[in-house]
From TrEMBL, chains A, B:
The keyword RNA-binding does not apply. It catalyses: L-kynurenine + H2O = anthranilate + L-alanine + H(+); 3-hydroxy-L-kynurenine + H2O = 3-hydroxyanthranilate + L-alanine + H(+). The modification N6-(pyridoxal phosphate)lysine is found at K220. Pyridoxal 5'-phosphate binds at T97, S98, F125, P126, T127, D128, T165, D194, H197, Y219, W249, T275. GO terms for biological process: anthranilate metabolic process; L-kynurenine catabolic process; L-tryptophan catabolic process to kynurenine; NAD+ biosynthetic process; quinolinate biosynthetic process. It comes from Croceibacterium soli. This is Kynureninase. Homodimer. The gene is kynU. GO terms for molecular function: kynureninase activity; pyridoxal phosphate binding. The keyword Hydrolase applies. Keywords: Hydrolase, Pyridine nucleotide biosynthesis, Pyridoxal phosphate.
Length: 407, 407
């Protein structure tokens, strides 16, 4: 039986307790949507004020050198690297997850001439599937989807790349990265992992799994702010062979020589395309700094404890609500998802009570647990609110069924 | 004969005088590099503070709806539109100039099946040429370069697209957009204009010229901050046919339906790829707001008067220094460029004196005039400093010849 005193005792004993104070969390809100948009680190507002007023306002163009703006994509990438089991020079922060997917899918196809199939699963996050479709429309790729139980069987000699999201955005189910990477390699294919729901939330060992390529999101568990730059990983052994098609001037070996012909920079830098977005990268750096400061071991321990606590609490307050996330906490991401035909209205009713989770079409209520700042008491409050919303039927109000532009 | 009292009289009579006060310009600095990085608008720091603390910190995920984050790319695009002679629904703010170039070059190739040549000129801004090279390496494009005098002759039945930068970044020379667009159309090709050195600086009439496609930079004359999002234009008549390969979820007809198959949004929205970068777009919006508020007519008048004043002043203080920008102010961008074998060291010596212009490899000193905040007195001071630097030989100091990472 979970209860409020138990939740408070767990919070009091939580080694991450003091880190929560480094985030701006509005009073009266239980925020369980850090897997969609991470909370604002207090340091971000002052850092961006400094970047704007001192570096941009006073330093002006000189800050590319004096504030070392030019190396910000590499610096932030290196800070993300240990969170995903990569070496610092294997990760870079740039563009969006979608754009980085395009670069790396195309690069993988170029590394496997004669093979055109990119294998993924139906129901993968849309942008992953759509970016394959973009290359398919260009005649460069062929999209193949197989349900997760049939993925290994679908790996044949036509497959250039296996592209999967490590933690599923809807269910939280986690792929076995080591096993699937091995299976892809056995079939002569490369593997590209989307870590959007993993980085900063669950342990990832890209190097240990011998992963080839990865991308991930900056605005979820890394707290980089809405639409923050994403990151991309390329294993060092592929650096020299890597040819990506978005060959912009910042990925050139000598951008300031202004030559007519493209020559890729050595190493991970060749993933760069346009001028780095400094304000956005500085915000991302502040978010990553906190997560890297806590470290994946403590984040993992806390994440699993939180989700187990929340699962037990909701099993008591809303016993009829099916949880569709894996039961084993080591087999799921830092979230719990529940299925209900009126999930949208239930989610709105919860938000009206100050409990912010989110809805995923058509019938999923998703509760995210950001170990850096979510408390056990938040979980307890969320479970109570969910029980009361279901019990009272208050979600039936028409205003809770009105769909907003962004759901 | 230009002189300081004359400069001050011109500033006193300048109808844009009060706008300069809306930018944060450091005292003691003559900033002639707004064509590389526009100055910080005072409103940007407070706007971003508000976006961070209130919209992100307090509103959290809800702000996608409540603060209408989701429409920011369209809103900023619509605000840029009148500056380039476009309709509001023809422009969108997203990604970098380089990434937008890739989308639109690929889209043009798809609209001209059977033609693979993308025609440009040698010495065009590198990223424009490199993005063609990226598609060339994929086997989708064939890059052809012709000197500007031979461009029209190079337009044959193999050319799918003519890709040019309207105002040349090194010399400031301006192409005749109407004439070249007509010539491209006569040859059955489309035209893509890079407006990076034009938008907010010189008059552009995309609609009047019947231009097909355009891109432009957010961090030069639009003052969006270092690495700000760029913009892209597609003439309405091409909206329905437009197929660009970076088919991310934000360009989908129904992003929140989370379907497996891509279906493009109608209109300009299909140029979107990943999640919009809200902090960066909010900063860009503040910069664009000022420029749109002044309007292109007043900006053009001021720009031409400034550059004529600066040209005359430098002709007196540094009479031996060749100006390589066109003499006719209506045939050049809002800049003046000078050639000297020691341009790098001269530029550094000027910066040491507080006069910030920039250097472009191998021998160009570039002085940009941002009509929203550059004063005639700044031009007079720059001309004096340039004369003194050349006269004294102070540029010969070894520290001025040491190349920085970013030049």
């Amino acid at each position: 039986m979970s209860n409020l005193p138990e939740a408070r005792a767990l919070d009091a004993a939580d080694p991450l307790r003091s880190w929560r104070g480094l985030f701006a969390l509005p009073p009266g809100v239980v925020y369980l949507d850090g897997n969609s948009l991470g909370a604002l680190p207090l340091g971000t507002a002052s850092r961006l004020g400094e970047v704007m007023r001192r570096e941009w306002g006073e330093g002006l163009i000189r800050s590319w050198n004096t504030a070392d703006w030019i190396s910000l994509p590499r610096r932030v990438g290196a800070m993300i690297a240990p969170l995903v089991g990569a070496a610092p020079h294997e990760v870079i922060a740039c563009d969006s997850t979608s754009v980085n997917l395009f670069k790396l899918i195309a690069a993988a196809l170029a590394m496997r001439p004669g093979r055109k199939v990119v294998l993924s699963e139906p129901g993968n996050f849309p942008t992953d599937l759509y970016m394959i479709a973009g290359l398919e429309a260009q005649g460069l790729a062929e999209r193949r989807l197989a349900p997760r139980a049939e993925l290994v069987a679908a790996l044949d000699e036509d497959v250039a790349l296996l592209l999967l999201t490590h933690v599923h955005y809807k269910t939280g189910a986690m792929h076995d990265m080591a096993r699937l990477t091995r299976a892809a390699h056995d079939a002569g294919a490369l593997v590209l992992w989307d870590l959007s729901h993993s980085a900063g939330a669950v342990p990832v060992d890209l190097t240990g799994c011998e992963a080839d390529l990865a991308v991930g999101c900056g605005y979820k568990y890394l707290n980089g702010g809405p639409g923050a730059p994403a990151f991309a990983f390329v294993a060092e052994r592929h650096h020299e062979a890597l040819q990506q098609p978005l060959t912009g001037w910042m990925g050139h070996a000598a951008p300031f020589a202004f030559t007519d012909d493209y020559a890729p920079a050595s190493g991970i830098d060749r993933l760069l395309t346009g001028t780095p977005p400094i304000l956005a990268l500085a915000a991302l750096e502040e978010g990553v700094k906190l997560i890297a400061g806590i470290g994946m071991e403590r984040l993992t321990t806390k994440s699993r404890a939180l989700s187990e606590f929340l699962r037990a609490a909701i099993a008591e307050t809303a016993p009829g609500l099916p949880c569709i996330s894996p039961e084993d906490p080591t087999a799921r991401g830092s979230q719990l998802s529940f299925r209900h035909p009126e999930a949208y209205a239930i989610c709105q009713a919860l938000i009206a009570r100050g409990v912010i989770g989110d809805f995923r079409d058509p019938d999923i209520l998703r509760l995210g647990l950001a170990p850096a700042y979510t408390r056990f008491e938040d979980c307890w409050n969320a479970a109570q609110a969910l029980g009361e919303v279901l019990e009272s039927g208050e979600w039936e109000r028409p205003e809770y069924r009105q769909r907003a532009a962004v759901t």
